[in-house]
């Protein structure tokens, strides 16, 4: 742990070989994931505070937990995600009805349709902690499907005084309409785990379909490109915080598609940093074009490997 911490601090900000900055952030699911020296947090999952609870944690309890995590990253940016629960991640206090098909049911932001006060309390706690924090807090919702959902979430978050409000892109409809979402939001963060599942109609919990869930699927790359291009046109950041961001061979492709930040587990940061530092932005764009054009994930990998050798 001590070595991992020292390494993160030593790495410094990430740039492509020609100086184009790419922010590298940590994915955090609890205090045990905290690493000093990190440039910031791209995905703070908040489920840890709610798991196994019969009652919702109070606003005061949530505020204290968020503030402790925020203050572990002074001077950086921390992107916190509101509760991502559903029938697949059951939270007793939500008392969600059993679902035939939880991945397509009331999960993520949709749970606020049944229990609006849970989201409202969480936003109040985040806003109060953000006001006292030594980092810049960005807040995003999981499983947003439509521009109206984005608009409602943004209005609610801003009513609590939150300044940087965004959404995860995990549903193809949201990627296809990213420009419309960005009319209401300050940033987007692509969750490739769910976006892959919904793009390929392949359950991410089902171990039998790894080829369809491969983050190199060109169809997934196309949707990432759409969201990134919408961000570029609007001048707003679009990151990736799913597992895809932790693959050092895929990271240059994602940057070439127009993604402005990557967020991953601490263990992946140094390899991704090295991969990006070794390539120019033009090379990243060439790799991205090849991967997007490939017929399947194996061909995408091979095209990128071949260009990297030459
Ligand atoms: C994702 O779907 O890619 C993501 C980062 O969210 P989670 O893995 O928590 O569903
Ligand atoms: Mg997800």
From TrEMBL:
Residues given in the record as phosphoenolpyruvate binding sites: 45, 81, 193-194, 204
Catalytic activity line of the entry: L-histidyl-[protein] + phosphoenolpyruvate = N(pros)-phospho-L-histidyl-[protein] + pyruvate
Enzyme Commission number, as recorded: 2.7.3.9
Top-rank taxon, per record: Bacteria
Main location per the UniProt record: cytoplasm
GO CC annotation, single: cytoplasm
Presence of keyword Cytoplasm: yes
Subcellular location: Cytoplasm
Residues of the PEP-utilising enzyme C-terminal domain: 13-277
Positions contributing to Mg(2+) binding: 170, 194
GO biological process: phosphoenolpyruvate-dependent sugar phosphotransferase system
Requisite cofactors: Mg(2+)
Key words, A-Z: Cytoplasm, Kinase, Magnesium, Metal-binding, Phosphotransferase system, Pyruvate, Sugar transport, Transferase, Transport
The protein's name in its UniProt record: Phosphoenolpyruvate-protein phosphotransferase
Organism classification: Bacteria, Bacillati, Actinomycetota, Actinomycetes, Catenulisporales
Portion held of the full protein: 233 to 542 of 542
